[in-house]
Amino acid sequence: MNRNLPKFFLMFLSILFLFSFSYASQIEGYVLDGQTGDGLPGANVFLEGTSLGSATDVGGKFVIPNVPAGSYTLVVNYVGYQEKTVDITVEEGQKLQQVIDLDFQAIEGEVIEVTAQAVGQMQAINQQLASDKIASIVSEQRIQELPDFNAASALSRLPGVSTTQSSGEDNKVIIRGLSPKYNSIEVEGIKLASTGSSSIGLVSDVFTTTAGVNTDRSVDLTMVSPYMIRTIAVYKSLTPDMNANSIGGTVNMELRESPSGLKWSALYQQGYTAKSNTIGNYRAVVSGSNRFLNDKLGVYALLNAESYDRNSDNMSASYIVKGDASTIDPVTGYRPVAVGTVTFNRHLETRDRYGANLILDYNLPEGSIKFVNMYAKINSDYTEHQQFLNYDNGVIQWRLRQGENEIDQQMHSLKLDYNFGPITTDVSISYTSSKNVLDNARVMNFNQSSAILFSGPERYNVAPENLKYLLGNVRGDSLVVLRSGNLYSSDYKEEKFTYKADFELPFNIGNMASGSFKFGGQIYNQSNSIDQETPYVAFDGSTSGDESIANEMQKALYNTYGLSVSEQGKFTGTSFLNNDNTLWDPFLDDKFGDIFFVSNPSLLTSIMNYVSSNPDFDATNALFGSDGNDGGWYNGLYQRLTNDYSYDEDYYATYAMTTFNFMDFSFIGGARYEKVETKYFAWNGEDMRNVITQQMYDTTSLKSNEFVLPMGQVKYTPFEWMDVRYAYTQTLSRPDYHALTPKFTYTQGNTIHTGNPDLKPAKAQNHDLNFSFHTSKLGLFTVGGFYKTIEDFAYNANYRIDAAENAGFDYLANYTLVKNGQNLILPESDATVYRPLNNPFDATVKGLEIDFQHNFWYLPKPFNNIVLGINYARIWSESKYPIYGIQVIPQPRPNPPLIAFVDSSFTGRLIDQPDHVLNSYIGYDYKGFSARISAVYQDNSARGNGGWFPENNNYGTEYFRLDFSARQQLPVFNSELFMDIRNLNNANPSWIQRSINGFMGIENYGLTLNLGLRIKY
After folding, report:
1. Pair 23, 67: CB distance under 8 Å
2. pLDDT tier at 6 (50, 70, 90 boundaries)?
3. Which CATH class is domain 147-535+635-1016?
4. The CATH number, out of the four listed (2.60.40.1120, 1.10.10.10, 3.40.50.720, 1.10.3720.10), of the domain defined by the range 22-124
5. C-alpha separations of 923 from 78, 792, 863, 905, 930 in Å
6. Which residues contact 972 (CB under 8 A, 6 or more apart)?
7. What are the DSSP E strand ranges found in 365-470?
8. pTM of the model
C-alpha cells in the first residue's frame, strides 16, 4: 500500500494542475475605507452564487484566483460597513483589477462617522472572522491608538489569555491555562528564540538556596514594543503548515510596513511610580518610512528606548505539615500545618529597554521580497534585600542580592512571495538568537540564631500574620553575623537558522467548488548553551584564630575595612548597616512583622572584589598548607562546570494539506511530519567541597524522535450572520532544555540531581468548537469550547534510590562512575534522586470561552461613540501525578529492615491554570478625544501542588485590576497628548495554601502613570 502513495499523490497533483491551468483568470484589488482611503483587513470578497472568494490581508488587498470567464456580481462585506456589489465581466486569461470603497453604516440615509476605537474593534472582528483558524486578533488600529505598555499586555485582553508578571509588568503569555512554555511566540511567522533564565543552578554555599537552572522554551514579551507591531493574532487551532510545538496556542505578530509617501512619528513620555514615589520613567520612540522607485521599494525604521522603575515588595511563606494520618481533622480532611518560613523581599529594579526595527520590502511583478530585522534588549539593574523568618528553628537570615541582568533578542528574516503561474510560493530564511547574561551578581548572607521565640503546637494552623508575637527575641545588629558571599555569573545563548518553503496551488471545479492544495517543509538548526560560575566564600574564620586561609582572610578584612567583630571573631552587622531610611519603611504595612536589618551593598561589593581578586585567599593557596578545604575563595571545577551544558537540535518537517470550499462549507485537512535530532553535552560530578581534589566528568547523549500529526478543520456558514467552526488537531510540547541533560550531580546533602535525555515531547489531541454571530448592529458575539487530552507531560519526581532499586524502578549504578576499578562517584545507597519523568497518566484541559465586541454607532449622540468589549473564560484542568515514597518493613533479626518502594499518585491541576479569566473594556471617543477603562479579573490560578501533603496545594486569590488610558489630539503639529494609568486600584496578586488559607505569597508593586506627547506625519 505504501508503494501506491507516491502514485496517488502525483495523480492528485496532476488533476489539480489540470483544473488550475484551465482557468488562468483572476480578480485582484483592494478594499478601502471610503473616507480615509485606508485598507480594510479581513473584508469578505466573493462572487455571488459561486464558491469563489477571498479575504483581504492586513493591507486590504485581495486575490481571487482561477476565475472562469463570464459575468459575475462581486460582493464585498465588512462588519460595520455597508455591503457593496459590483457587476463585472472576466475574460479568459484576464487579470481584472478592482478597487472597492466601502462606507460606514448609515441610519436613515445619514452616513455615520466612525470613531478611532470603533475602527480598531471592527478591524479585529473582521480579521477574526476571515481567519481560516480559530483565532483572536488585536488589530493595528487598536494597538496604535491607545497602546498597551507591551505586547504581553495587549494579548492579556483577549479571551482565554492571561499573563505572568514581573514586578507588575506583563511578561509571558498563558493561553487556555497552559504555561508560557507550552505556547509558541512568532514574529512574521518566525518563531522567536526562547529568552532563557538567569536562575542559578546547584551551588555549594550552605547559606544560599537557588531555584535551579530553568531554561524552558518560553519567550519574554516585554522585549517587544507595541509601537513596532501591526497586528497580533492568537491562533488557538493550528493548521499543518504551522510548527506543531504549541499545545496552548501560537501568537504571531506582524510588524509595521511602509505605506506610500514619507511618514514619520515621534513619541516621548514620562512616568510616575507610586511604589517608590518617583518621577523619572521615560519612553522615547521614533519611526519613519517611505517608498522609492515608483513605490516598489519600501523602507520602515523604528528606534525605541525606555527606562522604568520596577520596584516591588514581595512576600512568600512555606508551611510544614505536622502529624500523620491519625491527626487528620475529620471536618476539614487536613492535618495540622505550621508556618515554616516567611520571606520579605524588597525588590529594587531599574529596567532599561532598547529596540530597533528595519524592514525593507520590494514589489515584484508577481510577488514581493521582504527583509525584516528586529532587535530588542533589556537591561535590569536590581538589588534585593531579603529577610527570612524561620519559625521552625528560630533563625532569621538576611540576604542581599545585587546584579545586572541583560537579555538580548534578535530576528532577521528574508522572505520571497512569488506567483509562478497558478502556484503561490513562499520561501524564507531566518536567523533568530537570544542571550540572557548575569555577570558577577553578588549574593551575601547574614543571620542571627535564637532570634525567634520557640513555639510548639500553639503554632499549628496559625496564619503567618498572627505569629508576629514570636519576634520579640530579635536582638541588636551586633549579634547579626556575616556568613557567606557569592559571585554568580550565568551566560545563556540560543541561536537558530530556519529554512522554510510553502507552495500553494489553487483549484476549482466549475463555480461551485474551489480550494487549494498546499505543501512544504521546514528545517532549522538550533544550538543552546549555558555557562554558569558560582564561586563563593564562607566567612567562617576568626580574627583571633590560628594561621589558616579562612583566619588570615578574616584578619585582613578586619584590618582593611575596620569591621566590627563578635567575641568569636566573626563580622557583625554593626559595620554593614544601610543608612537609606526608605529601605526600613514598613513592609506590606508591617502585616507580617518588622524589617530588622538591611545591609550596605557598596561595602559588601568592595569586600567581595577584594577577596575574589586576592590570590592569598584562594582555597588552593598552599602558603598555609591548605589541602583544598581550609576555607577561602572557592572557585574550582565544581563551581565552574556543574551547571554548564551545550545542546544542539536539528528539526525537519514536511506537510501536505488541502482547503476545500463547497456551498456553505469550508474544510481544511492534512498532516504534518516532524523529526528532531538532538545532541547534549554536560558534566557529571560530586560536590566534594575541595577545589584541589575536585573532578568533573563529561557526558554526552544523542537522541531523536518523530511524529505524524493529522489535523482537520471545518467551517459551516448557515447564515450570513453566523458561522460554526470545529477543529481537531494534534500538537506537541518539547521538553525544557535543562530537563534533557544526561548528567547527574551528587551533592553534600546526599541528593542526586539529574536530567532525563529520554524525555518524550508531550502530545496533545485538541478539540475546538466555536460559534460566531456577527452583524453591524450586534458586532461580534462568539461562544466556544475546547477539550485537550495531553499525554507524556513532564513532571519532576524524587525518590530514595534504594527503594527504587528494590522495585526495579531505578538503580544506583546509573549514578556511579567507575574507572580502572576505582569509584570516582559513588552515592550513598539511601540517596534521594531528583529527576524529570514523563507522566504515565494523561492530563486534560477543557474550557468555555465567551467574547462580545460591540459599539453603539446606531444610538443617538452622544451615546453613539461608546465602544464595549467583554470576554470570559472558564477553564478546568486535571492530571494525576505519580509520587514515590518509602515504607520501612521490619525483618526478623539480625536482618536489617526492608526499604520498600511506595508508588502512589495524587490528582491536581496544571500549574498556572486559572479557573476564571474575565477581561472587559469600555471606551468613548469625542472628536479628537479618546478614553478607555479596562478591567482584568482572574481567580484561583494554580500555583503549586502539595504531593503527599494536599495541605500545601496553593492557588491564587481573586485578582481584579483597573487600567485607564486616554488621548487628546492637539490643534498644532498633528500632535496628541496621551496618558495611561496601570493598576488604578492598587491591586496586589496573592496566593494562599489550601488547609487554613494562609498566605503563601503577595506581590505589591502599586500604580504606574505615564504622560506623553506624540507627533505623527
Report:
1. yes
2. very low
3. mainly beta
4. 2.60.40.1120
5. 22, 45, 11, 49, 7
6. none
7. 367-390, 396-420, 423-448
8. 0.92
